[in-house]
Amino acid sequence: MAAAKIKKGDSVVVLSGKDKGRTGTVLQVLPKDGKIVVEGVNVATKHRKPTQQNPQGGIDRVAAPMAISKVAVADKDGKPTRVRFETKDGKKVRVAVKSGETIDG
Fold it and tell me: Where does this protein have coiled-coil stretches (predicted)?
């Protein structure tokens, strides 16, 4: 399996779909499914029945998984960039293709 180019905690930009252009932080990566969950993007509503824990019930807004190919890592200027791997000081690090900056996290 290839190394993950997008990881939890990265800032990403949505490239296509109804949320195109929006940015958010990665909450979860699902590599088996090729999906990713981004905070505040691809929000779905779930209708909840009243239960003992939640006697009111109601409508919850939850970030749903989306295809990992629809997002790109945000560069320091907020624009999308591709990611490549380089070896620096014997360590494999992620590098933004546009700026050449190393990506923390």
Answer: none
